Amino acid sequence: MSRTEAGFDDTAVVSARGLKKRFDSFEAVRGIDFEVARGEAFGLLGPNGAGKSSTMRMIACTSPRTGGTLRVLGMDPQTHGPAIRARIGTVPQTDNLDMELTVRQNLQTYGRYFGLSRAHVRDKAVELMEFARLSDRADDEVQPLSGGMKRRLAIARGLVNDPEVLLLDEPTTGLDPQARHLLWERLFRLKQSGVTLILTTHYMDEAEQLCDRLVVMDGGLIVAEGSPAGLIEQYSTREVLELRFHPGTQTRYVSAVEDLAERVEVLPDRLLLYTKNADATAARVSERDVRPLSSLVRRSTLEDVFLRLTGRTLVD
User: Fold this and answer.
1) Which CATH number fits domain 237-299: 1.10.1740, 3.30.70, 1.25.10, 3.40.50?
2) Are the CB atoms for 89 and 163 separated by under 8 Å?
C-alpha cells in the first residue's frame, strides 16, 4: 500500500479524510475517514439521517462536499466530476427509469448519454438484458414490470458504461425474498468480475451476504468499521438466548439471569442474553426456575451489532 503526501492510499478506489457535508446549519456528515479498496464490496450502514446517502452523493459527484478531502479513482470530485462519472455507475434508491420506454430502449438511450456509439449500445443492451435475466422482456414497456424486474433493469442500466465502481443506494428495498436473492447473485457475479461495489442498505442480512467490509454511521459519524464477522466478534457474543415473557413481566427476571450472560438486553416482551454458549445458558436459566413462554437459541448477527451501536429508538 502506498500513500500520497496528503495521506491518501493511492491504490484505493475511494479515499476520504475529514469528509463533511453541511446543509445550512445542519451537518449531515461530520468529518469521516474511510477507504474503499479496488474490487471489494463496501457497505455504509446506519439509521435514517445517519449521513449515508449524503456520503454516496458526494462519491457520485452529484453533491459537493463542504469540508475535508475526497478522492474517487484518484481524482477530486469537485474538479474532475465528469471524468469520474464516466467511470462509475449509479443505482439510486428510487428507480428513475423511463417508464414509457421498453427495457431495451432504456439501456440504449442511457448508453448514448455516455457518448457510446449506437452499435455499441445495441450490443451492450443485449449483454445486460441477459445478465439481468430480462431478455424475454426486451421489447416490453417498463411500467408494467414487477418491482424486481425494474430493480434489475436499474442495475443493468448502471452498468451500461462498464463502470469500475457501482454505487447502489438501498438496492433491494421493497423486494420479495426471491427477487432479493436473485439480485444478490447478480451483484456477486459483478464483484467476481472486478467491479467495486459501494452500497447502502437497511437489511443486515444483505450486508452480511454482500459486504467484505463496512462502516456503521450514526449522527453523521462513523461509529464502527470492519468486516461483518469482525464487527460481530468485537461488539457482540457468539450466541444469543432469547427468552419471551408476557409483556411487562420480563423485568422481574433480570436479576435472576443477569450473571449468566455477558450482557442482558430488556425488550418489551423478552430478555436477550448475550453469551458464548446459549444452550448451556438456557440450561442454567431452567435450573433457576425461570419459565419463559418460549426460548430461542441463535447466533449473533450484524443486526445485534447495529442496534447496540445505534440504539433501538426509531429515527424518522
Assistant:
1) 3.30.70
2) yes
Give the pLDDT confidence score for residue 153 in this predicted structure.
95
Nearest to 63 by CA among 53, 73, 48: 53
Burial (Cβ within 10 Å: 0-12, 13-18, ≥19) of residue 255: exposed
| Domain chopping of the chain, boundaries | 14-225, 237-299
For residue 102 the three cell numbers come to: 421498453
Q: What is the pLDDT of residue 8?
A: 60
Neighbours of 147 (CB within 10 A): 14
pTM score: 0.91
Q: How far apart are CA 45 and CA 214, in angstroms?
A: 7
pLDDT tens digits for range 24-64: 999 999 999 999 999 999 999 999 899 999 999 999 999 99
C-alpha cell at 119: 452499435
Pick the CATH number of 14-225 from 1.10.150.20, 3.40.190.10, 2.40.110.20, 3.40.50.300: 3.40.50.300
Residues 124-135: tens digit of each pLDDT: 999 999 999 999
What 8-state DSSP symbol labels residue 259? G
